[in-house]
Structure to design on (201 residues):
């Protein structure tokens, strides 16, 4: 996929944009950019697949509630993530028109997208890119969320086949908030890392 037009669109919206052919190259770059600082990770299969946690942990203070012993109370860890200087998340969908969409259940990840960090990095595999806002929203709701529900093994109708959203009202519903970035927030430094590989859902 040629990222040139998307990069230009995102830069016009105030973002810093970096592009890589592989997750490995992106990981090498990020490892060189983030050093001796506090780092928080949002829940993200893309980040896990990249192996970024292991790379950054060797020379940063990294908090991630996905990497704690089973049974740990994750709330203090999530709060530490939210207070870190640098934060990493992936996205559920990115529209080629520039809108960035995330759906969240707990809210820690979308809270960090909106405020509080010196730097925010958003990791985007090519599978997350959709032509426009409507198709990006559809993707977030009907691809990313059901597959995440299936991965988590929650008791929701979408988790059976991971095929689509059933707009459930289940107590186990993982979709509780929708966040859309229309453009880079005032005063924020947000870097979008485009990777020409499929990552996450
Ligand atoms: S709203 Fe319910 S059915 Fe739809 S994706 Fe979320 S958890 Fe699944």
């Amino acid at each position: 996929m040629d990222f040139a037009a998307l990069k230009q669109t995102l830069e016009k919206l105030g973002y810093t944009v970096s592009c890589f052919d592989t997750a490995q190259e992106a990981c090498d770059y990020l490892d060189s950019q983030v050093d001796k600082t506090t780092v928080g990770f949002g829940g993200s299969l893309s980040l896990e697949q990249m192996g970024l946690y292991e790379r950054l942990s060797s020379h940063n203070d990294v908090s991630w509630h996905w990497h704690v012993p089973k049974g740990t109370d994750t709330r203090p860890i999530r709060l530490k993530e939210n207070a870190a200087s640098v934060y990493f998340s992936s996205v559920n969908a990115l529209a080629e028109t520039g809108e960035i969409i995330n759906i969240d259940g707990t809210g820690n990840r979308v809270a960090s997208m909106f405020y509080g960090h010196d730097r925010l990095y958003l990791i985007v595999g090519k599978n997350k890119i959709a032509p426009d806002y409507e198709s990006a929203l559809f993707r977030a709701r009907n691809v990313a969320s059901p597959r995440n529900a299936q991965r988590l093994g929650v008791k929701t109708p979408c988790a059976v086949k991971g095929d689509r959203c059933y707009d459930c009202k289940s107590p186990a519903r993982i979709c509780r908030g929708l966040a859309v970035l229309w453009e880079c927030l005032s005063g924020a430094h947000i870097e979008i890392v485009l990777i020409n590989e499929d990552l996450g859902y």
